[in-house]
From TrEMBL:
<dbReference type="InterPro" id="IPR004886">
    <property type="entry name" value="Glucanosyltransferase"/>
</dbReference>
<keyword id="KW-0449">Lipoprotein</keyword>
<dbReference type="InterPro" id="IPR017853">
    <property type="entry name" value="GH"/>
</dbReference>
<comment type="function">
    <text>Splits internally a 1,3-beta-glucan molecule and transfers the newly generated reducing end (the donor) to the non-reducing end of another 1,3-beta-glucan molecule (the acceptor) forming a 1,3-beta linkage, resulting in the elongation of 1,3-beta-glucan chains in the cell wall.</text>
</comment>
<protein>
    <recommendedName>
        <fullName>1,3-beta-glucanosyltransferase</fullName>
        <ecNumber>2.4.1.-</ecNumber>
    </recommendedName>
</protein>
<dbReference type="Pfam" id="PF03198">
    <property type="entry name" value="Glyco_hydro_72"/>
</dbReference>
<keyword id="KW-0325">Glycoprotein</keyword>
<dbReference type="GO" id="GO:0071970">
    <property type="term" value="P:fungal-type cell wall (1-&gt;3)-beta-D-glucan biosynthetic process"/>
</dbReference>
<dbReference type="GO" id="GO:0042124">
    <property type="term" value="F:1,3-beta-glucanosyltransferase activity"/>
</dbReference>
<comment type="similarity">
    <text>Belongs to the glycosyl hydrolase 72 family.</text>
</comment>
<keyword id="KW-0472">Membrane</keyword>
<dbReference type="GO" id="GO:0098552">
    <property type="term" value="C:side of membrane"/>
</dbReference>
<keyword id="KW-0808">Transferase</keyword>
<keyword id="KW-0336">GPI-anchor</keyword>
<dbReference type="GO" id="GO:0005886">
    <property type="term" value="C:plasma membrane"/>
</dbReference>
<keyword id="KW-0732">Signal</keyword>
<dbReference type="GO" id="GO:0031505">
    <property type="term" value="P:fungal-type cell wall organization"/>
</dbReference>
Length: 340
């Protein structure tokens, strides 16, 4: 999630120079799909914000894709949000196509991040990915905290996850992983994630998370004394003391560096993660790209109308709230300079 009213060029350039790519959600603090009332949250003001996020992120070469939703469906009771997610994907794709034809702006892949709901994974995935490519997702990401401490492919349940998603025929990314029951985390699942058995289904993953926060999942922490002097509250002092304690704890921190922005603590978690990630560089993957392309084409030809979904017939994909006639007219006359 980004603030589409601010400039992000400097940050994105630094990430690009470091070889880092970015996924971001189109949702904002004030506009997102409300799982409790998804159809009410599908409104023109929300779509306008989504379009603006797309405009901002499409200009950066290291934007890898956009997410139409993040863990919107987290149980059987809110599956009815699926048609709304698909409507957002449809609108984003049509808008990007118009923008591309008008001024050559990049067309970004659109995806969705699922919550940890194994029994609903394939249903929601099928609904969002099958059928007309103009309204289907291009990739799927999922948050999975399954590999807890010493484990393996079978005990962790990775084998069942791979089997369940085997026929997806679109890029799947593990958007969050790294249970912190064992400290420091060893990240042995990283080697498994990039192994031939799993990489036939998953296109890598993202260890959670980079910066240390209150949940204790950070790989590194930046301490700047000035930020606590500006707001010398009791809570801020507590956070400062805890940050200093972590930095001085050799069981937690592997290395300390002094930077222009403050003292950077590199945790053992990061060292272990990097070591396991580096070890995957020489893994030989036997890709079967031609088979995946045929499977992807087959999914595009699936007629979703012939399948019964759990939320039907009461909930259908809503008609667009975008005035496309107005937008197309503006594109034809002077380029896409106005949103809705």
């Amino acid at each position: 999630m980004i603030d589409d009213t601010k400039r992000h060029g400097q940050a994105m350039k630094l990430l690009e120079e470091a070889g880092m790519y970015v996924f971001t959600s189109v949702a904002t603090v004030f506009n997102s799909i409300n799982r409790a009332e998804p159809y009410k949250s599908y409104r023109r003001s929300a779509i306008k914000e989504y379009f603006q996020t797309m405009n901002v992120m499409a200009q950066y070469p290291n934007t890898l894709g956009l997410l139409a939703g993040n863990s919107v469906i987290n149980g059987p009771g809110n599956q009815r949000a699926a048609p709304v997610i698909r409507a957002v994907v449809r609108d984003l794709k049509r808008y990007m196509k118009l923008h591309n034809e008008a001024n050559g702006q990049r067309i970004l892949p659109i995806g969705y991040t699922s919550a940890t709901i194994e029994h609903l994974d394939t249903t929601v995935l099928d609904f969002l990915s099958q059928g007309d490519p103009a309204s289907s997702i291009d990739f799927w990401t999922c948050n999975r905290y399954m590999w807890a401490g010493p484990s393996n492919y079978q005990i962790s349940g990775y084998d069942q996850l791979v089997a369940r998603l085997q026929g997806a025929a679109l890029p799947i990314i593990m958007s969050e992983y790294g249970v912190n029951i064992q400290k420091p985390r060893q990240f042995e699942e990283t080697a498994a994630l990039y192994s031939p058995a799993i990489s036939q289904v998953f296109s890598g993953g993202c260890a959670y998370e980079f910066w240390e926060s209150r949940n204790g999942y950070g790989l590194v922490e930046l301490f700047n004394q000035e930020q606590y002097r500006v707001k010398p509250t009791w809570t801020a002092e507590q956070r400062r003391d805890k940050a200093l304690a972590r930095a001085d704890d050799s069981r937690k921190t592997a290395e300390k560096r002094h930077t222009e922005r403050g003292r950077l603590s590199i945790f053992h978690d990061f060292v272990n993660y990097r070591a396991n990630l580096d070890a995957t560089r020489n893994i030989d993957h036997n890709w079967e790209g031609d088979i995946m392309e045929r499977e992807a084409a087959a999914r595009g030809n699936v007629d979703r109308l012939q399948r019964k979904w759990a939320w039907e017939p009461e909930y259908q994909i809503p008609d667009t709230v975008v005035d496309w006639t107005e937008i197309e007219d503006l594109v034809n006359r002077r380029g896409l300079t106005y949103l809705m």
